[in-house]
Design goal:
Layout (H helix, E strand, L loop, with lengths): L8 E4 L9 E2 H4 E3 L5 E10 L10 H13 L16 E9 L8 E8 L10 E8 L5 E8 L5 E4 L5 E4 L4 E10 L12 E6 L4 H15 L4 E3 L4 E5 L4 H11 L3 E2 L7 E5 L4 E4 L4 E2 L2 E14 L2 E3 L11 E3 L2 E15 L3 E2 H10 L4 H13 L6 E4 L1
Length: 366
Amino acid sequence: MRQYLFVSLLVFGFISNTVFAERIKDITSVAGIRGNHLVGYGLVVGLDGSGDSSASFTDDSMRNMLEQLGITLPPGANLPIKNVAAVSLIAELPPFTKPGQKIDVNVSSIGNSKNLRGGTLLMAPLKGADGQIYAVAQGNLVVLGLSVSGDDGSSVTINVPTGGRIPNGATVEREVLTSFIGGNSITLNLHRPDFTTAHRLAETINDTMGLGTAHAVDASSVRVSAPKELSQKVSYLSMLENLTFLPGTAAAKIVVNARTGTVVIGKNVIVQPAAVTHGNLTVTITNDPTISQPAAFSRGGETVVVPKSDIDVAATNSGAFLFNLGVTLDEVVRAVNNIGASPAELVAILEALKAAGSLNAELIII
């Protein structure tokens, strides 16, 4: 007998009818102001025998580094690379970061190193997508993972010891120019594109700054006239981003995570008239083999196992329930929960309502 445990978390978005004003800075971003990804390659030294043991590129990197430091090794010389690990470096350069400022660096092993704990990253350049060097990283790693092994081969690993972080481990060497510096306008991009929100945003700015100051370019962008002087533009944008207005309501959506049984339902989801019936059909097959013995004093008889199966079919019907015009999905879910449907069965009912044209929402299954 199998038992199934279903866990469902149902979240209703915007249950209350109250609509709150939003600040412009919370739902938009200024075009051209963004971070830039940096990547690099380096060597981590000082490991206690947990470095790369058979990575040829680590050996080559060590030789190149020593040659740059004026140390020439004889051909074929063995390097103790067990205390060294080749790593990849990634970082994000925030907008308006100036040379001399510090940024964090993430370090990950790319060889067969088992543990980076206690290592030190040697000076390594961080490059942007254009191949230019924007920062230089160096410092001691902070590794939260731990790996311990015994002489008998047993081991214990906590988190991931082959990755670490260097807080403020890179010094910025080059500034990335943004489009914010030049021009007599700025563009505000909505985090969630919506024509109603873009229209209301432009209206709010025009009511405050004057007619014709802003106009919606499309569902996600609003262009705003701004002073050309940089200091004035900063003050102007500071005033703009603190304005409040009522954004448009989100489209009717239902998001279902079929793996976890989580169902998130938006406020504007309405169900058209529909009748739903729900039932389960359970088929149980039980194997009960029997032993067949030959007759007494028979010749050539053999004892054999004869398979025997019992099949039991049980059908349960929870009945049908009717949804009238304009019923909310809240009532639908409550009705489904009352009959004891599982999350998987709830998803099946929602899909059936969508296919029948009774559900005016976008059903997203992830």
